[in-house]
Amino acid sequence: MKAQLDALSLVRHLRQRLVDFGLDNNYMRDPQLAGILRELWNGPASAGGLVSDLWVEAAFPAKQSDASLRSLTSDGLFSSSLCQHLNRPAAVPSDRLLYQHQHEVIRFCAQFNKANEKPSILVTAGTGAGKTESFLLPMLNLLSDDTGHGDSSGMQCLILYPMNALVNDQVDRLYGWLEGQERLRLFHFTSETPENFRAGERDNVPQRKPCRVRTRRQARGLEDARGKSVAHGSSSIRVPDIIITNYSMLEYMLCRPQDSVFFGKALKCVILDEAHLYSGALAGEITLLLRRLLDRCGRNASEVLQIATSATLGGTDEELQQFGATLFSK
Q1: Among the residues of 88-130, which ranges form H helices?
Q2: pTM of the complete model
Q3: 117: which DSSP letter?
Q4: What is the DSSP string of 307-320?
Q5: Rounded to the nearest 5 degrees, what angle is found at the Cα of 278, between the Cα atoms of 273 and 281?
Q6: Model confidence over 216-264: pLDDT tens digits?
Q7: Disulfide-capable partner of 306 in 2, 145, 282, 328 (CB 3.0 to 4.6 Å)?
């Protein structure tokens, strides 16, 4: 049985503890004066109480659809091999019903997987409503649907976060999803990512499965997973398909010659999580940064699937559409 928090009881106990602490810290020898203070501090906030009134906001659960990955696969809208690979408790069981917004995003994106033009999508849903799946599943479906890089180079997908603190859980989740296959590879690129195998060993960075690249030199195709140098131009090691980073690191990557290998016409998808943090001047900077990214990769905004998600991004439909259109230049 899950323990439930009694908010009203918590407020009462918190108020009582604060009052007791206040009286102990400001000892009153006169019991009458101490009683007056206790009554005052125990009272409502408007009359001098130490704890403000309790705010209660209703949180409605996300709507559930009648679709699952299995049914989407049967409809030809989701990769059969990907559905089978994700069919485990730690990932996405094929018969688990999807939330309505997850179902809508997957179905909508799948219509454009083989088209030259791709949509841009803004997903707003409450915390715990599966926003991460609403971009990971269509993204993986798009990359799985592709038969290969062909003559294209560079990463296939960029997932951008505002800061490192928000990304670790998502990286571990995607890593867990990708384990057991070697077709798609993930690389988490931050200031803490070791430069090479020796640095990784020195900093005790865990060894990774083949689906996750460990060092920068390995991601650039200059060394293998054991630190052995790779000949320049060798086709035995390719750039990671999915790169997860933050906007500051992306700025550095775009400027550094050694990171040019990550940018090319293979780019198919750009994802921005926690989009509500991109406001004001920062939103303008991110918009220009994404334009530089597309220009560097030789891609047009219309050719790249773009998804932004947020739990708290508010506004009318028209305002959200304008925000998304400006952010993604599409």
Answers
A1: 100-110
A2: 0.81
A3: -
A4: EEEESS--S-HHHH
A5: 160
A6: 999 999 999 898 998 765 555 589 999 999 999 999 999 999 999 999 9
A7: 328
